[in-house]
Amino acid sequence: MRLDLTPDELLSTTRAVRKRLDLERPVEREVLEECLELAQQAPTASYSQNWHFVVVTDAAKRAALGELWRQVAYPYLSRGGERSGQLARIGDAVVHLAEHIQDVPVHVIPCVEGRLEGKPNALVASRFGSIIPAAWSFMLAARSRGLGSVWTTFHLMHEREAAEILGIPYDDVTQVALIPVAYTKGTDFKPGKRKPLDSMVHWDEW
Ligand SMILES: Cc1cc2nc3c(=O)[nH]c(=O)nc-3n(C[C@H](O)[C@H](O)[C@H](O)COP(=O)(O)O)c2cc1C
Questions:
Q1: Closest by CA position to 36, among listed 116, 161, 126, 147
Q2: What is the CA angle 73-181-101, rounded to 5?
Q3: How far is the CA of 150 from the centre of ligand 1 (A)?
Q4: Model pLDDT for residues 113-148, shown as the tens digit of each residue
């Protein structure tokens, strides 16, 4: 499936999708491979693309990852008491995803080679900067094919356990996110609410 979106529509409507993931509909491997091939076109800091994507479809592995995700999500959500407005809506959606994450048909884990703990910021920035554009390209390509996704980092608090589940060599490879992927229920998404541009853009000086 290809959605008829202009580039600007694609960029402004690729939302964090949690409640509208279709848990019943399988995602074809070929579609994921198309998205990953597009992701490979993103810029990287080194000539050798020193990153990897672990695509998890195995149900038992998704269940085990989901357990790690929940162990961080639930305490995070219970922090800070009552929430209202947008935060409450996001909290509600995160609870929904926490309850169903094991049923999302695909979990994609972008990884980059090396460990970054205690390294200089220039190195950390260039390593994360090498994988994140590719992962975002993957999410954009997915959206244009009717798939929804959401960037998540909760499971990284248990990165070593996730590495064991997936056979990732923890000492040599850093996980960057866990991106649940599924077809969306409906394909109409709106641009998100954002701060005024002038509160975050600085021309010539801060
Ligand atoms: C670095 C990063 C980490 C995030 N971690 C999580 C997470 O662990 N769990 C989650 O449900 N969403 C996570 N999100 C999604 C955000 O909470 C937020 O919903 C999203 O970026 C904005 O959604 P929108 O573009 O649809 O407005 C993360 C996003 C980013 C960029």
A1: 147
A2: 35
A3: 7
A4: 999 999 999 999 999 999 999 999 999 999 999 999
